[in-house]
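Kindly review this record before class:
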Amino acid sequence: MLEVFQQFGFPIAVAIVSLMAIGFLGKYLLNRMDKMDAKAEKIQEQYTAYLQMSNVELTGALKENAMALKDNASALSKFSASLERFDELLVKLNNKIN
């Protein structure tokens, strides 16, 4: 840098040094952006994997709930049929008594 100031006038030397500083700053910022992009991509991959795993777990839970509801509906249907038969027996018993 000292040679730049010795060979050129002050205004030209300041311009050259300023351009060099902007170049170094640009390289630094590009390097930093690349690192940030890599980190963001890694986080996005982890989040995607988490969402996929969560989706699998939720689907399994929904299947279990659907089976439980189906079993409950079947049990209620059987119970309803039993109550109807019991009602018929009570009606027949009541008719015999009267």
Remarks:
- Helices lie at 2-7, 10-97.
- Residues 10-97 form the longest helix (88 residues).
- The radius of gyration is 40 Å.
